[in-house]
Structures are given as structure tokens and as C-alpha cells.
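Problem 12. The chain below contains 518 residues. Write out its predicted structure in C-alpha cell notation.
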Amino acid sequence: MSRKVIKISLSITLILYMVFLWKYLLIEEILGLYLVPIFAATVIAGLCFLPIRIFKPIRYQKVFAVFIVIACILQVFILRKIFQINPSQFFNKEQITGDIDYAVQMLEDVHPDPYSIISKEDFYRKVDSMKNILPETISEKDANKVISKIYALIKDGHTGVRLLPPKIPFKFLPYKFKITDEKIFVARNFCYRNVIPLGSEIISINGMTSRQYIQETSRLFSWENLSWRNTRLQYPMLWELWDDFRNYKVIYKTPEGKTKTIRTSGGFFSVLQIDKESKQQKLHFKYHYKLISDSIGYIKFNSFSDLEQFKIFLDSTFTSIKNENVRHLIIDIRNNGGGSSSLGDELMQYISKKDFKQVDSCSVKISKELINKNKLDWIDSVERKAGTLYTVTDSLIKLRDNPLRFTGKSYLLVGGNTFSSASMFASAFQCFEVGTIIGTETGGLTVCFGDLYFYDLPETEFNMSLSHKKFYQVCGKDDRRGIIPDYIVENSIEDDAKSFDRVLDFTLELINKSKIAP
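Solution.
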């Protein structure tokens, strides 16, 4: 095989890479994917022919032929794998309309109070409007978008459609944002070029103002208060999921006040950066305790999950706290999205000085769906009438004998990511005056929905979640607000860039002042 043929073959392959991947990856990433099979083919061909070359001469044309065959096979394999990840799926208008009607019926059957925020008439008017503008053929992504908008209308953070995972490879806006006063600020760069200075304010994206961008994206998922919404909007994956743009024209103002314009986009490298940060957050601090300094202990955990393991952690931790003579205990649930409230009950047994409860009462929606799933067997059969609400009033939980109960001062750190059972725990912590709360308003409300029922839509097979309980947390108010801390403290973008924890630092200063107070 002549070198000319090899060059032509490789050139054609490069053109194919550009044609198929330019919408999904950056140029340098396409070239990288193109060169990897060539490098691998060179190594494989070399290893195959080197032993033979020792004993007899080899025609280099044969080596080149083997090399080009291996390179082409590897490149075809890579392209095939890429497009297996990105299958194209489309639905017709009747299918999506059917799924919408099914989703609405399930909402009314299962949810305890779907029209607490929006009236039924207004809800149906908006749903009909969405159905009327559906095209005859709709992509899986756009179908997911429409159904997400419908469930987002009721403003219940537990109720919604599972967002489709991002297609890989893909381009997106490669920045972490901080939303303040309906403005977007850059908190982190997930790219190696077109870096925007941290703290810069985004003026517009592809001609859409920041306020418009926030409002549009906010319609695509269910949020209960601004604290929870702004936390969800930090990462670009949600923005990418609903954005048809592949390349972005961004106008921003630097911290020094200079207005600049760039054209930018993130690719595979950016995906790896975000994925790395996400995994680190999930892996770190499942349950974590450390002694910060003499007499100050620190507990952090990011999920109310695995009760038995949590019991073991608490026993070990509070044994250490007692042995180390800790007098000030900081509990950090700023990034805790919730889970099982039973973990909150268990933790309160170690820190509360009086009997407690996390919920005053709970309204349970009786539905044939939950009855068929045997999820309501704990309710007397006479009371299990589909379409009705069953109200449960919680009693105080008695403190058990616990030689490890903490008797010092407790401090709870909360924020916009404090949601569901974590927010419920914060409510009890505040109501029963366990200690001082520091941070920002929780993402979870004091009167909220929860306890999920899952189902799949018949046509698209999207996985849906529905609350079937309404919780009235202890000392809660039905004002669409979360728990308001005793001290409002929030990290700035500069703090995050320097890995400085202003909230924790403020808490330590508060403790130190109390130590020297007369």
C-alpha cells in the first residue's frame, strides 16, 4: 500500500471525524480522538512486526497496510461507540399528548395538594397551551422539556420528571454560576480557554439577558423558594439540557467594570472537570467527624441515608466527643439534600436537651396507586378511601437514656442545598432550641411535600416522581420560606476561589467570643 493511499485514507477519516463530531466536541478534542487510534495502531503494528523483523526483512508496505487497517478499525469503533451513546429518539404529537394527560391524571390521583400554588383552572389552561403548540414530531429531549414544565408549575421540589442525562459528547456553557439578586456571576471555570475572571457578571448569553435566561430555565424544574432554585442553577448541566445552542456568545462585565465579549463552549474536558467535582462531593463527608481545636468538634454529612451505619457513626463520634471533652459542636448540613427523617430523630437523641419531634402533622393522599403498591397498609383499611386525605398527628419523641448525650453548645450550618429531611431536621433543631443556626435560608420549606411515589410514562417511559404527603414541620409556617438562620452568613465567590469557608470561620469566631465572654 503506497504512502499516498495511506495519506488519502487518513485524510478522509479526519474529514469524517470533523463532519460527524464538530457539533459535539471542540476542534482540539476531535483531533485528539482522531490521533489516539493512529497512535494505538502504530504501537500495535510495531509490536506485531518487531519480533519478525529480528529474523527476516519485512516489506514496509505490509507494515503500512496493517497499520492503516488497525487505525481505521479503531476509528470506526470509536465513532460507533459515540453514536451509540447518542441514539436519536422521536415521538409523535399523539404520544406526547397521551403522556401529558397521563401525568396530569397521576398528579391529581397521588399528590396531596397539587393546586396549593397554582389554581386548577390556570394549571389546565397552561397545560392546554403547551399541548396546542406541540409539533407533529418531537425529540426525546424536547418531550422531556415539555413534561418537566408541566410538573414545575406546582412548585414542589420532590415532584417532577427525571432529567435526561446529558448526551456525551456534547458542548455546553463551561462555567459554574452563582445567582444573586437575579444576576449571574461566574464562580468557576470548567475550561482551559475562554476563561472568564471569577466574580464577573454575565450580561447576556446569545442575546438573552441574564434575567431572561434565569427566568426561562427556572420554568424547567420544580423549586420551592429562591434559595433552592439558585442552588440548582449553579451548575451548567441543567442549562445545557434545555439549550439548543452549541456555541455561546457571552457578554460579561469583569470585577474591574470592563465589558467584554467572547465566543465559548465546553467539551469533553469540561465534562470531566464537572464529573470530577460531582464525584468528590458525593464521596466526601458521607459521615465525617473531626476535632477542629481544643473543645470544638465538627460533624459533616451530605445525606440522611443508611440509618444503621449512621447509628454506628453517632456512637463512635459521641464517644470521641465525650472523651475529648468537646464543649462546642458544629454540625454541617449545608450540602445535605435529605433522605430519611429517621436519621434526624437519631441525631436529636444525642444533642437535644428535651423531648422533640420533627413534624407536627402530615396529610397523606390515599390513592389506588399507593394502595396497589401496598404503601398504605399501615393505615386502617376502613380509612383507605381513594381520593381522600388521611391526617397523622405526631407526638413528642421521648429522650431515651443516653450516656453519650452532648451537653455543650451546638451550632448548625445550613444553606440552599439543605433540603427535604435535612431541612426538617433544621426545623426541629431551631424549634426545640438545640443551638445556634448559621448560614443562609434552607432550600427546603417548613411546610412541604415529600415521600415519593415513582412511575413511568407509558409512551416516553420517562421516570416520574410524585409526593404523596404534605408535612407540617414543627414550628413551621406556611409562608413558602425555609429555615432562617440566627446569623445570615454566605461565602462570596472570592471565598470559594480561595477555598475559604466564611460560614465555618464565622462560627469559630462566635465560639471563641463566647469562651472569653464574662
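Discussion. The CA atoms of residues 289 and 299 lie 5 Å apart. Students who got a different answer should revisit the alignment rule from Section 12.3.
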